Sequence to fold (275 residues):
Amino acid sequence: MRVTFIGGGNMATALAGGLVARGNAPGDLRVVEPSATQRDRLAERMPGIALHAATSQDAVADSDIVVLAVKPQQMREASVALAPFVAPVPVVLSIAAGVRCRDIARWLGGYARIVRAMPNTPALVGRGISGAYAMPDAGERARDAVRVLEACGGVLSFEREDELDAVNAVSGNGPAYVFYFLEALEDAAIELGLPADVARTLALATFEGSVALARQSGAAPATLRANVTSKGGTTQAAIGILDRASVRRIFADAVKAGAERARELGDEFGTDREA
Fold:
């Protein structure tokens, strides 16, 4: 599959690396990246890929898919630069958070074979999860976009684009929530007198092991929590503190705030003000 990435940052690098690991020839990959320093890094990391300083006919020609992998604030500029060359491209995949398909289509001059996805940062280690929405005109070509995303993890498809705001709040932001609780668990361990390296080892192993147990058992998280919460025991004492502080409610409110902000950013990024 011939893939052109507009933007050569971390996520594009992860997806390109995942494609190569799955057997895609480096020579079939192109990256448009204005930064000479970043182009040098990409050339060193993935010998054989084609690198371009700006979007051009040569960068896009014969591509099976073009991946818009720039920051949301740069999407209008990147899309406008791609517009003169996009008509023959079978499908365009956007992985920019918040930017809606209708706005990308407008910036691309009416091109509507667009798939929009919300990946997350574990894609950098091949353990990501993405939510994807395809415009109707994408048709069967949407499968090529899914194949690109699958190079770095799982993919869930959604029938409505607005559902990606919730995906953003849950899995897109989710790694930050996990790191937040990891940080808190480490800090608590240190306050209890454990060395910092031991605190981190315990915290990481606890999260990794708990997720593995949840996957293997298939039981609901509530059931697994109840299984380790003996009446009058140490876990119940700890969970009681969390419940009295309404941590569950606060956490749900935080996730909802993330979804609302995603909707707001979609409105902001979709304007046609000059970049």
